[in-house]
Design brief:
By secondary structure, the protein is mainly alpha-helical. It has a domain of 42 residues. Helices cover 56% and strands 0% of the residues. It has three helices and no strands. The longest helix is centred in the middle third of the chain and has 25 residues.
């Protein structure tokens, strides 16, 4: 099983590329990322062991905003 080339961008390069996108596209990306993060958090919660529920209750998606 092979994977294509993986391109790793430095954070500054990534931020510069995102900054050049139209605002409408940035909003769509932000919405999609937030929805995917919520789905991932729900899946992790569902798979977490439930001895006390503390681990499950502490799993959540959060917004991380960075300034350019």
């Amino acid at each position: 099983m092979g994977f294509g080339p993986i391109v790793v961008l430095a954070n500054d390069d990534f931020q510069r590329q995102i900054g050049q996108l139209p605002i409408k596209l940035k909003r769509q990306l932000a919405t999609t990322i937030a929805q995917d993060a919520d789905k991932l958090a729900s899946a992790i919660k569902a798979a977490a062991p439930i001895r006390t529920g503390a681990m499950r209750d502490n799993v959540r998606a959060r917004a991380v905003l960075s300034s350019p």
